């Protein structure tokens, strides 16, 4: 039996020709093997111009063994010849170095190295927990307990002690694009060391290139890394919060918040109404704002009123003149408004975005600049932003995490308070959350997504008896099964009671629900005793 597979040769992105590889499986495979043809790796030897294709050509009936063949490809005359074939332990996938192929066994921790250019029977030597290698050199890093050894496969199979990796840390070799180059020294290799209390980028000579103790807290664990071939200076890092960082010569040049591509909730508040004090007041154009908190006598009241009107009128005239002249010069209203300095008229809003990687990002509605970020390894279930009207205009930003409640400063994103969640029979992933606003305070309620069961008061200091006795209603939506249920919260027993239901049928799943409230925060701004939540 003969199986054929087509090979197309390209040179400078243009097809130069094609031919077929014929595998005579009846002659080459043991009786207990089934024929397959799975190309694994293609390796070029620049020293003698040889091009070798490594392919799996058979697997045993019991799945324990695999037949691996090497094909020498003549890309000038357009033909291929099978040079050798070996029966080896079956494997899950492969890595490759500059001139070797690595078979990764199904356990994920054991690896077998093959030299496709050797004509001798392979020397079966197993390696334990290797780092994914680079295709630009033949260095191999493998673990034995917490010790890492290095092997230069181009110079033999002798292992050399390299470094110890502390418990809780992970060592990673950044990925590189393929680049034809001469022999590479160990000190030209880049590695990352990701620990709970620090993050480092080091060279193969263990020279520190970059170090930070805040990465774990602000961005989580390292997910992937990329390096410029032959350079230890330029490194791209991707962290758990999907933030992308570019390092050059030990300096972080820029960061991109890629979590913005996975937004799941948006809340808005007006930062201009937040009371400011101290250094924040020094930048205010209106002088009377600096004295708002100072005591005033009855005799000073008329003067203060006149001063306020005069300064407001002068500022309005100056702002209008500057705005008109700025637009005439730049024809860009965003640049012109940004140049006005402190936003006293409320043009700028702050958007608080909750993302899938458990990162909350606050951005300016005026120019899209990032105001602050907050990341936590625990799941962030919901964000509540409440802005009270009237004097003071306080803004509260509260996050419901799977294990605690966190309150953030709306201007800086710094943690103002953190409290553990009360014990509940259901995990937060199976709860929905409603902010119930009262005359003097607000209560954060956790209700079962099923709509039936115990309702919990999450905000510290508020007991069930302190809630208003007015009826509270919410609606739960079962998107998959096309069901909408209305519920009433009994504030005496603190249970959810089903009051009505609509079934659209499984053939009509609910994709989206729109209400008179844009967001949960918008609902909190309405003076109503009937808050409604949609899930």
How would you describe what is shown here?
With 535 residues, this protein is mainly beta. The protein has 4 domains: 1-124, no CATH class; 129-249; 263-284 and 336-421, Thrombin, subunit H (Beta Barrel); 427-535, no CATH class. It contains 6 helices and 36 strands. The strands form 10 sheets. Strands 3-4-5-6 form a 4-stranded antiparallel beta sheet, with no helix packed on it. A hairpin with a 2-residue loop joins strand 20 (243-248) and strand 21 (251-257). The longest helix has 30 residues, at 301-330.
Shape descriptor: elongated
Number of strands: 36
Q: Structural class given helices, strands, pairing?
A: mainly beta
Distance between the termini: 60 Å
Low-confidence stretches: 336-341, 520-535
**Helical content band:** 10-25%
Tally of helical segments: 6
How big is the Rg?
A: 33 Å
Relevant terms:
10% helix, 4 domains, 44% strand, mainly beta, elongated, disordered C terminus, 6 helices, four-stranded antiparallel β-sheet, Thrombin, subunit H, single chain, 535 residues
């Amino acid at each position: 039996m003969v199986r054929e597979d087509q090979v197309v040769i390209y040179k400078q992105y243009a097809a130069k020709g094609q031919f077929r590889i014929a595998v005579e499986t009846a002659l080459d495979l043991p009786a207990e093997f089934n024929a397959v043809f799975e190309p694994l790796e293609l390796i070029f030897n620049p020293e003698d111009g040889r091009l070798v294709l490594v392919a799996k050509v058979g697997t045993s009936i019991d799945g324990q063994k695999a037949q691996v063949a090497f094909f020498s490809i003549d890309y000038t005359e357009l033909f291929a010849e099978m040079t050798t074939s070996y029966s080896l332990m079956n494997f899950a996938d492969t890595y490759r170095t500059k001139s070797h192929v690595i078979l990764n066994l199904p356990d994920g921790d054991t690896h077998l190295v093959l030299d496709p250019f050797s004509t001798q029977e392979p020397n079966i030597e197993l390696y334990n927990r290797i780092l994914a290698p680079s295709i630009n050199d033949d260095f191999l890093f493998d673990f034995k307990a917490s010790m890492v050894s290095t092997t230069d496969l181009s110079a033999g199979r002798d292992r050399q002690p390299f470094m110890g990796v502390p418990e809780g840390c992970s060592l990673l070799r950044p990925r590189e694009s393929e680049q034809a180059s001469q022999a590479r020294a160990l000190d030209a290799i880049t590695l990352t060391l990701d620990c709970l209390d620090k993050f480092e980028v080091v060279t193969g000579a263990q020279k520190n290139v970059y170090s930070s103790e805040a990465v774990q807290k602000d961005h989580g664990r390292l997910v992937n890394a990329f390096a410029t071939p032959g350079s230890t200076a330029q490194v791209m890092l991707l962290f758990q919060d999907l933030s992308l960082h570019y390092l050059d010569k030990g300096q972080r040049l820029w960061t991109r918040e890629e979590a913005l591509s996975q937004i799941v909730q948006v809340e808005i508040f007006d930062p201009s109404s937040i009371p400011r004090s101290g250094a924040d007041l020094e930048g205010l154009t209106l002088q009377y704002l600096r004295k708002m908190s100072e005591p005033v006598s009855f005799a000073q009241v008329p003067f203060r009123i006149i001063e306020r009107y005069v300064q407001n009128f002068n500022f309005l005239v100056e702002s209008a003149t500057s705005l008109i002249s700025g637009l005439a010069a730049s024809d860009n209203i965003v640049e012109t408004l940004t140049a006005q300095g402190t936003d006293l008229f409320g043009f700028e809003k702050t958007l608080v975005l909750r993302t899938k990687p458990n990162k909350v990002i606050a951005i300016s509605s005026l120019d899209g600049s990032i105001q602050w970020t907050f990341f936590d390894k625990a799941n962030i279930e919901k964000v509540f932003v409440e802005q009270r009207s009237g004097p003071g205009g306080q803004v509260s930003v509260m996050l419901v995490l799977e294990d605690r409640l966190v309150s953030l400063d709306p201007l800086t994103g710094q943690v103002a308070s953190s409290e553990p969640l009360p014990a509940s029979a259901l995990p937060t992933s199976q709860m929905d959350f409603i902010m119930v606003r009262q005359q003097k305070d607000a209560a954060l309620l956790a209700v079962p997504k099923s709509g039936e069961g115990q309702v919990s008061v999450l905000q510290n200091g508020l007991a069930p008896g302190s809630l208003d006795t007015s009826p509270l209603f919410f609606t739960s939506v079962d998107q998959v099964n096309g069901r909408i249920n209305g519920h009433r919260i009994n504030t005496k027993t603190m249970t959810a009671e089903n009051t009505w239901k609509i079934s659209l049928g499984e053939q009509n799943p609910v994709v989206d629900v729109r209400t008179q409230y844009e967001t949960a925060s918008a609902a909190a701004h309405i003076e109503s005793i009937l808050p409604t939540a949609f899930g």
